[in-house]
Amino acid sequence: MSSQARITSDRAVLAGMLVTAVVYCRDLQYDFILDDVPLILMNETITSWKNWTTLFVSEIVPARGVDLVAVHYRPVYMLWLMANHQLFGMVLPWWHLTSLLLHLLVILLVYKVGVRVLREPWTAALAALLFAFHPIHVESVSYVSASTDLLVAVFMLVAFLAYSQFREQGASRWYLTASVLAAALAMLSKETAAALPLALVGYEVLAEAPQGPQRWRRRLVWTLPFFGVVAVYAAVRTLLFGGNLGPGPGMDRRMALWDAPLVLLVYLRNLSWPVRLSFFYPDDWSSQWTFGKGLTAVLVLVAGVFLWKRYQERPGMRLQLLWTAILFLIPVASVSALRKQDWVHDRHMYLVSVPFCLATAVILTDLKLPRTVSIVAGSLLAAMLLVMTAVQVPRFKDELSLYEDALKVAPRNELLRRYYAATLWNGVPRVSEPSALREEALREFRVNTELWPELELGHVNYATALAQASRDEEAATQFKRALQLDSGGPTQLRASILYRLAALELKHSKLEEAEGSLHESIAIDPKAVGYHGLLAQVLKLRGHGREADEQMKLEASVKEQFIRQHSVPRAR
Predict the structure, then answer these.
(1) Quick one: angle between helices 353-366 and 92-118, nearest 10?
(2) Phi, psi dihedrals of residue 265, rounded to the nearest 5°
(3) What is the spatial distance between Cα 374 and Cα 352, in angstroms, rounded to a whole number?
(4) Which residues contact 313 (CB under 8 A, 6 or more apart)?
(5) What is the C-alpha separation between 313 and 176, in angstroms, rounded?
(6) What pLDDT is stored for residue 432 in this prediction?
(7) Is the predicted pLDDT of residue 430 greater than 50, yes or no?
């Protein structure tokens, strides 16, 4: 048997999947990080199968105090986490292994989709290898909580394969049913699945043109169930949580769309030239227009038009260009819903990279070059991406490594520096003698207040750390500075600052000041746990026993209500 007969496109993809598994196997020993803590470690809902119905009527983290930027309704994703917990408990390697297996499945599905739409197995194989080795996927694979991106990709690709089988092969309508079901599972995994109906419309439009408007309507009518899936999801989400659109970018949401092309440019840069990838990026990359960025945006538009015309006889390639544009819509348009520091994350490109890699493979194999040269060029590109991925994986070893790497790219990202300082502080051993790491953490907190002196949260975090380090006078100064900066009226943050300041005042027997701070904090947030109890201590020390007893009764009532609201049904 000749070597050409032994080396097939199928075997090349399987070999690529094996190499991918080897590169990512290092993350089996990595920690839970970031959102893994509230979603997995602190989430009692996933500890019992009896709670599965709760997942369909609640957001992914029902607990208060979790730093999530919007309501996320993803019950299938939460079922995935529940299944992992029931099968593996908190044994870390298994969680990473299931994410890796999902990634390998997506690689195979990318190959199958490529064969279906491009009709060229070797081009599809090259696309699958580019997808497998692309370093922009490290965040989605090595970060356990990002498995939501893997799940939505699996279900959307399965939905398309079943739909195209039904439409092209005249298969049973069971394929259409399976496609709609997969679309529903995708929608319940992550909101980006809302782009699937548009992707299917693009598929129908670029198929062989039907004759007459009636035939057009007959062709597009098959996409209606998928629009129905999105509509039902939106209706259920609105009924459960209202019209929550996220915290916003700190400016007019419509004005933020002016910066959407900049976000697109950053993503295209990361896909096309994946160096200096990071968990956080500089804010000015995606929020400050320059002449160079404007010129680049124009060149991107010209390149898109050129490729569209260049491949007018290749509907499969045109479909990839159209899919890339469609799948970019949600990540780019999310600038109106997210805070600026969350506008760009590599994991948001997991799904977009599917048509991007397919289109790249077509371009590489379509150059007017000898077959051998095309193979060598594609192999070199895949090898380069593989090496870059191998270098990127260790970033996710733990939170400190992730933040230290990100600081090399985005040293003035406020959210990054805040998380970095907190991670340093939380890693400090709680001993009486200050350690070098503790001093480094305090120094980082102080630097944050110097870089952004107008942000009250920076002063609050610094004050909290100082109080824990028993530097009470400095802590009180920072708490008071935060109160001066708080000009937005009574908020839960202001109440929390007053409560913490009162604790310091009580510690130093400043009872009158402590009582005043606590009365104000309770007036703002009377249902906060601990406020009434601390006030009771102050009142008792001041000789107001009856008032102290009343406050203790209120504290008991608040605690009981808190427990009732946040309790999770347990299996019996």
Answers:
(1) 50
(2) -65, -40
(3) 24
(4) none
(5) 28
(6) 44
(7) no
Asked whether 463 and 475 are in contact (CB, 8 A), the reply is: yes
Q: Is residue 455 a contact partner of residue 414, using CB atoms and an 8 Å limit?
A: yes
pLDDT tens, position by position, 323-337: 999 999 988 888 877
Contact 441, 401 (CB under 8 A): no
**Cα separation of 129 and 385, whole Å?**
10
AA letter at 141? V
Q: What is the crossing angle of helices 436-451 and 456-468, to 10°?
A: 160
Q: How many CA atoms lie within 13 A of 301 on its CB side?
A: 8
What local confidence, expressed as pLDDT, does residue 6 receive? 74
**Structure tokens of 552?**
């203790």
Task: Report the C-alpha gap between 359 and 352 in whole angstroms.
Answer: 11
The DSSP letter of residue 523 is H
Backbone angles phi, psi at 508, to 5 degrees: -105, 20
Q: How far is CA 509 from CA 428, 466, 469, in A?
A: 29, 19, 19
- Position 124 confidence tier, pLDDT thresholds 50, 70, 90: very high
How far apart, in Å, are the Cα atoms of 69 and each of 342, 455, 494? Answer: 9, 18, 20
HSE (side-chain half, CA atoms, 13 Å) at 152: 26
Sign, Cα dihedral of 560, 566, 567, 569 = positive
- Sign of the C-alpha dihedral, residues 272, 273, 278, 280? negative
Per-residue pLDDT tens over the stretch 199-235: 999 999 887 655 555 566 777 889 999 999 999 999 9
Q: What contacts 316, CB < 8 A, 6 or more positions away? A: 117, 118, 119, 362
Using left for φ > 0, alpha for ψ between -120 and 50, and beta otherwise, residue 73 falls in beta
pLDDT tens track for 232-250: 999 999 998 887 666 665 6
DSSP 210: P
| φ, ψ (nearest 5 deg) of residue 256 | -65, -30
Confidence (pTM): 0.89
Q: Where are the alpha helices (DSSP H) in 452-510?
A: 456-468, 472-485, 492-507
Collapse the DSSP code of 36 into the 3-class scheme (helix H, G, I; strand E, B; otherwise coil) and give the result.
helix
